[in-house]
Amino acid sequence: MKIKLISTSDVHGYLAPTDYSRRDNIAPFSLSRAATVIHQLSREDTADVWPIVIDNGDYVQGSPLTYFIARHHQEAAPLYSRLANCNHVQAGIFGNHEFNYGLDYLDLCESSRQYPMLAANIHDDLHRTLFSKPYTILERAGVKVAILGLTTQFVAHWEQPHHIAGLHFEDVVATAKHWVPKLRQLADVVVIAYHGGLERDPQTDRPTERMNGENRGSALLAEVPGIDAMITGHQHRQLAVTVHGVPVTQPGMKGTNVAMITLELDRNHQVTTSHPEIYPVADATPNTQVMQLVGPINDQMEDWLDTPLGQINGNMLVHDHLQARLHNHPYIDFINRVEMAATGTDIAATALFNDDVPGLKQHVTMREVMNSYVYPNKLAVEAITGADLRAALERCASYFLLQDGHVRVNPEFMHPKLRHYVYDIYSGIDYTFDLTKPFGQRVVQLDYHGAPVTADQKLTVTLNHYRAGGGGNYPMYQTAKIIRRLPTDMTVLIADYFAQHPVVNATQPTNFQVHY
Length: 516
Fold this sequence. Notes:
It is a single chain. α2 (about 65-70) packs across α8 (about 290-305), α3 (about 80-85) runs antiparallel to α8 (about 290-305) and α10 (about 330-345) packs across α14 (about 490-500). The protein contains 14 helices and 30 strands. It is α/β, with parallel strands linked by helices. The longest helix has 18 residues, at about 290-305. The strands form nine sheets. The protein has a six-stranded mixed β-sheet. The chain has a six-stranded mixed β-sheet with strand order 6-7-9-10-12-11, covered by helices on one side. It has a four-stranded mixed β-sheet with strand order 26-25-24-30, with helices on one face. Belongs to the 5'-nucleotidase family. One of its GO terms (molecular function) is 3'-nucleotidase activity. One of its GO terms (biological process) is nucleotide catabolic process. This is 2',3'-cyclic-nucleotide 2'-phosphodiesterase.
């Protein structure tokens, strides 16, 4: 028998083929294009060829459409599970972003599903049905395939507590060590579908990131015998590799690729060969059935995106993202102003999340806001010390490398996953980096209200909830230090700011300097 393990991951709500930058944009990705490829790969479906489709998480959050549905049209939320049914998904996995709008909303998103959601390492104190299945076993022609579902154990470090009340995210390796031997007794083939990635290079086995537990795919493959195939995600990488003899895939993000692992079984139901692949979707025609389901709510959302909000006096467009991160930028300063206005603090930080952030045009619409501020972040006010602030700034300063007199981005922030969102720029303080100095010694000036910041000085700072929980390897920021949370999404706070300030001046901030 030939088993085809076909998967999507990190679609992030890009259902129609558009990036939403313009109403007429046509993008080379989307679930609708991926659906066509899935159907092509699944076309051969017999007693001897068995396609199994798995969605590996981060499905219901990430695009302007997902925000529009969650905040304005929750009655449309079952669309996600209906689309998964169209693709004949046979198992779903929870990604970390599945929890961004709370558990009631997640339950609504999955309310039309004809497949199980798998949550082996999620313990639910309330025993809700949504998290009740650690695995599923599928059977055809006497062959049994077990799929174990795992979610990155780092969710609790990032997510707002009330969104995951009653849930506990357990160590994925310990969970797999418990379940895989049992599944080997129950099934012929054992597959792990893990919303997490590889923390080591597949060829050299060298660490590719800080070993903090966010991604533990390499440890799973090294420490848990009996895995026949592993589907990964979360890192947005494009992978089709074999690690420790196990085929591994990861299909990128936004539906840019469909991944497939082909397993050949002998008459004794033993895996004899395996082959991982990824299939780009750029040339695939969007699936008609998917587009018919998505079209009505997508059209409403496009109208909403064109809602005018306010006007910029000056230039708030971002043309050179590295230079913006090196010298600060009017758009970054504006976001920090919104944060400080919302919380009443006079220190705030934000990131220029990726190199696609356009900034704001002169006549601002919701489209510009959603395309520039791409995460459903909420704000937290944190009580810290001057030492905490300096340590955070040293972490920021490590984003840059100085090579032959030229500033480059540290590869740690580029590979294996682009993580520009880990680098913050602050308002409300005056600070200077000296890139000629070693990591940990680069903050050469740090002033607050015109005076040097002391190590034991008490400060309050506004951060997004991800950073406030230490996300991005900022251990000086901790949930225990949060003194106040705002329940409103940043995009709403930005729109509210324009309602109060219809004309906003774009000014180049001067509080941050870099020497090199």
